[in-house]
Amino acid sequence: MTRPTAAAPAATAYTAHLDHFAREHLPPPGQWPQIRFDLPSLQYPARLNCVGALLDAAVADGGGGRVAIYADAEQWSYATLQRKVNQIAQVLRDELGLVPGNRVLLRGANNPMMAACLLAVLKSGCVAVPTMPLLRAKELAAIIGKARVDAVLCAAGLRAEIDALDAAPPTVWFNDAGADSLEARMAAHDGRFEALDTAADDVCLISFTSGTTGVPKGTMHFHRDVLAICDCFPRSTLESQADDVFIGTPPLAFTFGLGGLLLFPLRVGAAAVLLEKLTPETLLRAIARYRATICFTAPTFYRQMAPLAANYDLSSLRKSVSAGEALPLATRDSWQGATGLAMIDGIGATELLHIFISAAGAQIRRGATGKPIPGYQACILDADGKPVGPGVVGRLAVKGPTGCRYLDDARQNDYVLDGWNLTGDAYEMDADGYFFYRSRTDDMIISAGYNIAGPEVEEALLRHPAVAECGVIGRADEERGQVVEAHVVLKSGFDASEQQARALQEFVKQQIAPYKYPRSIKFQAALPRTETGKLQRFKLRAE
Ligand code: 3UK
Q1: Burial class (CB in 10 A: 0-12, 13-18, 19+), 478
Q2: What 3-state DSSP class applies to 48?
Q3: CA–CA separation, 455 and 453 (whole Å)
Q4: Ligand 1 centre distance from Cα of residue 535 (Å)
Q5: How many CB atoms are closer than 10 A to CB 481?
Q6: Half-sphere exposure of 460 toward its Cβ, with a 13 Å CA cutoff?
Q7: What's the 77 CA to ligand 1 centre distance in angstroms?
Q8: How crowded is residue 313: how many other Cβ atoms within 10 Å of its Cβ?
Q9: What is the mean pLDDT of residues 421-435?
Q10: What share of the chain is helix, strand, coil (3-state, %, to 5)?
């Protein structure tokens, strides 16, 4: 095997990549966050292929017959998944001529072939660039340019936006019956493929943030990072096991979904249910049908599922994980009331790959996200970058085994300060070390000199029986600088009237300090959200 010279001094000398693009575009070592492997479980060998560790090891240990993936019309054992992954890896190497380090863009909904494609790219030593199903040609073009994508694996049902590109890289279609489809090509290969002998710090994943402004940011992650997220949150907090059945909504192209619906189950020999286009009703039905034990989704989904839960047999469900945005207490309470389950809230970020502050069971404290999970450290910094004590709102700072490495992006310096990752969130700690989310740093509303966190007002509004959903923003105001403005979706049977608005305002004043009440209320049919369930506050502001 050839042994090309490595580029960046921050990485170890060895690399299995023949194409050095990823390593050459890591940020300079001085701009990296501090990376810490503080747990015995995080001591990885210098050579590591994450798919070798996740999939081949499970089969070698005799788990080949276990179910890895349940889907609508089929179920795949670990051995089946391994064979398909190997066949795809053979197509990538032998037919597309890809070499280790090449970037492969992936585009598909959550289904077994999408999962197999992702794993095949990593196993072959290439770099996966997963993309959200709803992205349009313009956004895909930006990603293709930024990550210098060499090839595309795309679900046939999503081909329109690839066809609309001015210049698409060589593309193979999957979820397709055509003579030239990935499935047809796979059939010509014997399914034998050794995991490439990659370095633990070879880049294997470039995950683009669902950024709201400007050019998307690509976050680069190593083979060891993929295992590190499996060996942190799932072990300490989720306590997942081989008999678990994971289910949920986040796309595999979002690292919340990649971890929760593919990597975490594989790490413990468990099964994942991969379903496309879930609604609150169909997710509930699927939990009952597949006897799912662990659910991953966003707060808004739990909020919509809670009133319907009584119609389904959810007796198999043991754990529910909420992430992506703040979990309002009203949502935690209604879900717990409906299912008896204490929600595991967790904050994660694409830059850190997965969840780093969370709590489960008896460790849950009302209103708090939780504590840094073992392996991670966190603190709150003031505007000057100095740590503040309990009771002071400041900037959340985190470090651990994973961290921010943007692909060729000056914004690296905004995210990393003195070795800490700054997530852009305003948080407050209590005397026991629990972390309480307040708002995004940029979203803090300043009205007549008061700092008001939109989510606190949302929280209060959500307790009103007429409110289905709401989003609170600061609206520019001559007199006060900003005023609190609530965008409210009413439950059916309630009228968007002046009187209703006044009732909501009064209600908020009863719940929280009266100066925080929304002076402006706008009723809406729906709120703008990303594919990952996040409220798009900038769109509310633009209205
Ligand atoms: C916000 C939360 C309060 C927060 C993600 C789990 O959301 C994920 O990644 P993104 O890069 O966004 C990161 C930002 O989202 N956020 C996420 N979870 C929470 N705020 N409470 C929460 N529980 O502003 C954070 O900085 O899209 C979540 C796992 C992997 C992920 N990538």
Answers
A1: exposed
A2: coil
A3: 6
A4: 12
A5: 14
A6: 22
A7: 31
A8: 12
A9: 97
A10: 35, 25, 40
Token pair listed for 290: 């597949």
Rounded Cα distance between 184 and 181, Å, is 5
- 102 and 127 in contact (C-beta within 8 Å)? yes
What domains are defined for the chain? 10-429 (3.40.50.12780), 448-542 (3.30.300.30)
Helix count (H) and strand count (E) of the chain?
Answer: 19, 25
- The pLDDT tens digits of the residues spanning 302-356 come to 999 999 999 999 999 999 999 999 999 999 999 999 999 999 999 999 999 999 9
Among 3-7, 42-46, 380-384, where is mean pLDDT lowest?
Answer: 3-7
How far from chain centre, in Å, is Cα 286? 21
Strands, E assignment, 359-434: 371-372, 377-381, 394-399, 416-417, 420-429
- Exposure of 70 in the CB half-sphere (CA atoms within 13 A): 17
Work out the burial of residue 509: count CB atoms within 10 Å of its CB; fewer than 13 is exposed, 13-18 middle, 19 or more buried: middle
With contact defined as beta carbons under 8 Å apart, do 424 and 444 qualify? no
Ligand 1 pocket (Cβ < 6 Å) reads 209-210, 255-256, 323-327, 345-350, 354-355, 369, 423-425, 437, 440, 532
Measured CA to CA in angstroms, residue 209 lies from 215, 408, 478 at distances of: 10, 14, 34
Question: Which residues, listed in sequence order, are joined to residue 104 by a DSSP beta bridge?
Answer: 128, 151
370 CA → ligand 1 middle, Å: 14
Mean pLDDT of the 502-530 span: 95
* 385 HSE (CA, 13 A, CB side): 9
Determine the distance separating the centroid of ligand 1 and the alpha carbon of 223, expressed in angstroms: 22
Strands 319-322 and 294-297: parallel
Q: Which amino acid is at 94?
A: D
Name the residue among 393, 348, 385, 395 with its Cα closest to residue 370.
348
pLDDT at 10 over 70: no
Task: Please report, for residues 82, 111, 191, 213, 253, the alpha-carbon distance to residue 175 in angstroms, rounded to integers and kept in the order given.
Answer: 18, 9, 19, 32, 17
**Which tens digit of pLDDT belongs to each residue from 272-285?**
999 999 999 999 99
CB contact at 8 A, 260 and 212 = no
Q: Whose CA is nearest to atom 22 of ligand 1?
A: 347
Q: Name 295's bridge partners.
A: 247, 320
SS (H, E, C) 446-465: EECCEEECHHHHHHHHHCCC
For residue 87, count other CB atoms closer than 10 A to its CB.
Answer: 23
Which secondary-structure segment (H or E) carries 163? helix 160-163
Please tell me the predicted confidence (pLDDT) of residue 6.
37
pTM exceeds 0.90 for this model: yes
Query: How far apart are alpha carbons 418 and 407 in whole angstroms?
Result: 19
Cross-strand bridge partners of residue 425: 440
